[in-house]
Amino acid sequence: MANKDIELIKDGKRLDGRRFDELRNIKIKAGVLERADGSAYLEWGKNRVIAAVYGPRNLHPKFLQDPTKAYLRCTYNMAAFSVEDRKRPGPDRRSVEISKVTADALRCVVMLEKYPNAVIDVFIEILQADAGTRCAGLAAASVALAHAGIPMKDLVSTCTAGKIGDEVVVDLGKEEDNYGEADVPIAILPTKKEVVLLQMDGKLTREEFDKAYELAVDGATKVYEIQKAALAMVGGN
Ligand code: CDP
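That is the input. Now the predicted structure with cytidine-5'-diphosphate docked in place:
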């Protein structure tokens, strides 16, 4: 991961000019698809993401039904044209992992017990990838679920932090993710600051991890405001 030949931070400024605690530009629009029950389009730096929700509807085959709650499943997919080298279409180890951790995080907020025997499908399509797509996808999916009118305890807000050179910074860009020392994506329930996803790639000391955690939670709290604003705009524009 680390590459000492690339200077990722110089005089306190990162490659794209951001400070250590500055997020990339984020825009979210809820309600972008006619045929989904809920949807959202999200831009996060150069990431471009669509999230679509279908359901709740009856789950088939029937033996998969749970009479006590709905089954929430998630499919994270990267378009073939979303990355520099063409991505081979279809699921791979990475997309299966991201689908799983995303579904696990969303199951913490969706009130699944309200829909016995049902399924809620969440689709995340990465149209353009530039590091941090699991966070971008999860943030968009949570807005799409709220847009679908599905009862939730909270939104899920996300952000990464990590280490580039000797500095701990928020929201790694592509070069920072590729050549940095470590990357920590998190997802929280913003009102209670409860963590529903936390992963780490690379190595951090305990102190560095604490700093990264704090920066990522602050970043996710800013993302929460953008998510709420996107939902407030629905029907208004
Ligand atoms: O996207 P995220 O940071 O959540 O996950 P990652 O596995 O750490 O991937 C980091 C970045 O690598 C992605 O956002 C893409 O920009 C890039 N990538 C790629 O170029 N080709 C792939 N097949 C997978 C990822």
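The helical segments are 93-107, 133-147, 174-179, 206-233.
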